[in-house]
Specification:
With 289 residues, this protein is α/β, with parallel strands linked by helices. It has 2 domains: 156 residues, Rossmann fold (3-Layer(aba) Sandwich), CATH 3.40.50; 123 residues, N-(1-d-carboxylethyl)-l-norvaline Dehydrogenase, domain 2. The chain is 55% helix and 13% strand. It is built from 13 helices and 9 strands. Strand 1, helix 1 and strand 2 form a beta-alpha-beta unit. The mean pLDDT is 96.
Length: 289
C-alpha cells in the first residue's frame, strides 16, 4: 500500500483519485471545494491543507486549473521541504513553468513528472484515460504503478515540460476544430442547410473523429451541458498564444479562436459555461438562437 496524496478533486481528479483508492493505495486528499472532498469521506484522509497532503504522502498528484495555482502550491511545498517526494502534475500547465519548477524541485531533492491527460471525466471514472508522462525516467518508473491505476495507456515523451507541450498542441488542434464546427453549423444553417444534413455530409472518413462527433452532437441538439469548461479552454489557447509570443511570431488563426472564446465567455456573465457554448454564441450572431 502506497501513501499517495491528491490535490484537486474536480471533474477529472475525482475519477483518478477514486481509481487510485480502488487499487489499494492509501490516499490523503485536498480540494478548496469541501463538497468535492466529502465524496471521499471514509475512503481517504481529508486534509485541511495542501501541506498536510505533503506530510502524509510519498507521491502527490495535482489536478489543478492552471500553472498559477500549481506554482503557488509547489512554492509552499518547496519552502516546507520536498526531499524524497515525487509530484505528478496532471493539469494542463504552461510548459516553461513546468521546466522551471522541475529544476527547483530536483535541486531540493524531489521529482516532478508532468503527465497531462487525454479524454474526459467518464474515462477518468472508469480508469481508462490515455496520458503522456515527461520528466526524469527514474521518477516516472517510480510512479508507473500509480499512473496505471487510472490509465489504460501512457507514453513516455522525454524530459520535463514535454508532456505539457504535447498537451497544449493536442488542445490547440482539438479546440480549434471544435470552434470551426461552432461556426459552421449556425452559418450554414442560416443559408438553408439543416445542421443534421450538414453533419451527414461531413460524417465520413475524411472529417469524422472524436472531436467532430462530440461537438457536433452538442451544436446540433443545442445542448451545451458541462463537460469541459470554456474558461479552461481559453486558458489552454492562451498558453499556445504565449508560446507564439515567446518566439515573436503571430498567432494567426489562434487569435480568432481566442476572440470567439472571449466573446462567448463574456456572454455568460460570470456563469461557468461549457466550451461548446461558442456554438450558442454563433447561433445568436446569425439569429438562430
Amino acid at each position: 500500500m502506497r501513501k499517495v496524496g491528491f490535490i484537486g478533486l474536480g471533474n477529472m481528479g475525482k475519477g483518478m483519485c477514486k481509481n487510485l483508492i480502488l487499487k489499494g493505495n492509501q490516499l490523503t486528499v485536498f480540494d478548496v471545494n469541501q463538497d468535492a472532498m466529502q465524496l471521499f469521506k471514509g475512503k481517504a484522509t481529508l486534509a485541511p491543507s495542501p501541506l498536510e497532503v505533503l506530510k502524509n504522502s510519498e507521491v502527490i498528484f495535482l489536478s489543478l486549473p492552471n500553472s498559477t495555482v500549481v506554482e503557488k502550491i509547489m512554492n509552499e511545498f518547496l519552502n516546507e521541504g520536498v526531499r524524497g517526494k515525487i509530484f505528478v502534475d496532471t493539469s494542463t500547465s504552461y510548459p516553461m513553468s513546468t521546466r522551471s519548477l522541475h529544476a527547483k524541485i530536483k535541486a531540493a531533492g524531489g521529482g516532478l513528472v508532468d503527465s497531462p491527460l487525454i479524454a474526459g471525466p467518464a474515462e477518468a471514472d472508469r480508469g481508462e484515460l490515455i496520458a503522456v508522462a515527461a520528466g526524469d525516467k527514474e521518477d516516472i518508473d517510480k510512479v508507473d504503478d500509480l499512473l496505471r491505476c487510472y490509465c489504460k495507456h501512457y507514453d513516455y515523451v522525454g524530459p520535463s515540460g514535454n508532456g505539457h507541450l504535447i498537451k497544449i498542441a493536442q488542445n490547440f488542434a482539438g479546440l480549434s476544430q471544435a470552434l470551426i464546427y461552432a461556426q459552421l453549423y449556425p452559418i450554414i444553417a442560416k443559408y438553408g442547410i439543416n445542421p443534421q444534413e450538414l453533419y451527414k455530409s461531413l460524417n465520413n472518413e475524411v472529417f469524422s473523429n472524436w472531436v467532430f462527433q462530440f461537438y457536433s452532437e452538442k451544436y446540433i441538439k443545442k445542448n451545451y451541458h458541462m463537460d469541459f469548461a470554456l474558461e479552461l479552454g481559453l486558458k489552454d489557447l492562451n498558453y499556445m498564444k504565449k508560446l507564439c509570443d515567446d518566439l515573436n511570431i503571430p498567432g494567426f488563426l489562434l487569435d480568432g479562436a481566442i476572440d470567439l472564446c472571449r466573446v462567448a465567455l463574456k456572454e455568460g456573465k460570470g456563469k461557468e459555461l461549457d466550451f461548446s457554448h461558442a456554438g450558442n454564441t454563433m447561433y445568436e450572431y446569425v439569429g438562430l438562437d
